[in-house]
Write a structure and sequence with these properties.
Rossmann fold, 5 strands, binds coenzyme A
Length: 160
C-alpha cells in the first residue's frame, strides 16, 4: 500500500523551511500533496494562483510531490485524497499549543487521519513567512531563506 500525506498550509509564500519539511517527509511517505488551504485568521499577500506558481517552481526537483488548493476542511481533503496522514512542521515550543489544538481537533473530526510532526531544521527555527515578508518589505536581505523564485516575486510585489 502506498503511504501518502497531505502537507497543508498557507504558503504565503513557501520558504526554505517548508522545503526542508517536504524533503524529509519524502523519506517517510511515497507521496506528498502540498495543499494550500484557507486559514481564516490570515490576510494573504499572494493570491492562491501566485502561491501555487511559486510552489511549482520551487518543488520541480522533487518527485512524488503534487500541489493543490482546497477550500474546506483539511480532514475532508485528506479523505478525498486517500491520504493516511497530515504532515506538519514544528518550529519551537511556541508552535506546540496551536499545533496540538489543531491536531486534536482534526483527530476529533476524523480518527482515521493521523498527524505526523517533523521538527523543523535548526536553520529554519526562527523563520516564518510573515517575518520574511516583513524583512523583504523594508528591503532586508532574505537570501537563502526562500527559493529564488520567491525572492523575485517578493521584490516585484513590494515594488508595486
Ligand atoms: N520553517 C519555517 N517556517 C515555517 C515552517 C518551517 N518548517 N513551517 C511552518 N512555518 C511557518 C509558516 O511560514 C507560517 O508563517 P506565518 O504564520 O508567518 O504565515 C506559520 O509557520 C504556520 O503557517 P502554515 O504552516 O502555512 O500553516 P497555517 O497555520 O497558515 O495553516 C491550515 C493552517 C491552513 C493548515 C489550517 O488553517 C487549515 O487546516 N485550514 C482548513 C480548515 C480546517 O480544516 N481547519 C482545521 C480545523 S481544526
Amino acid at each position: 500500500m502506498l503511504r501518502t500525506a497531505i502537507y497543508p498550509g498557507s504558503f504565503d509564500p513557501v520558504t526554505n523551511g517548508h522545503l526542508d519539511i517536504i524533503e524529509r517527509g519524502l523519506t517517510l511517505f511515497d507521496g506528498i500533496t502540498v495543499a494550500i488551504l484557507h486559514n481564516p485568521a490570515k490576510k494573504y499577500l499572494f493570491t492562491v494562483e501566485e502561491r501555487i506558481g511559486m510552489l511549482e517552481e520551487s518543488l520541480k526537483k522533487f518527485s512524488g510531490v503534487s500541489i493543490e488548493a482546497f477550500d474546506g476542511l483539511l480532514v475532508d481533503y485528506a479523505v478525498q485524497k486517500n491520504a493516511q496522514a497530515i504532515l506538519r512542521g514544528m518550529r519551537a515550543v511556541s508552535d506546540f499549543e496551536y499545533e496540538f489544538q489543531m491536531a486534536l481537533m482534526n483527530r476529533r473530526l476524523n480518527r482515521d487521519v493521523q498527524t505526523v510532526f517533523l521538527m523543523t531544521g535548526l536553520r529554519w527555527i526562527f523563520t516564518s513567512s510573515s517575518i520574511i515578508k516583513e524583512a523583504a518589505c523594508f528591503g532586508g536581505n532574505i537570501n537563502g531563506m526562500v527559493p529564488p523564485v520567491v525572492q523575485q516575486k517578493l521584490k516585484e510585489k513590494f515594488k508595486q
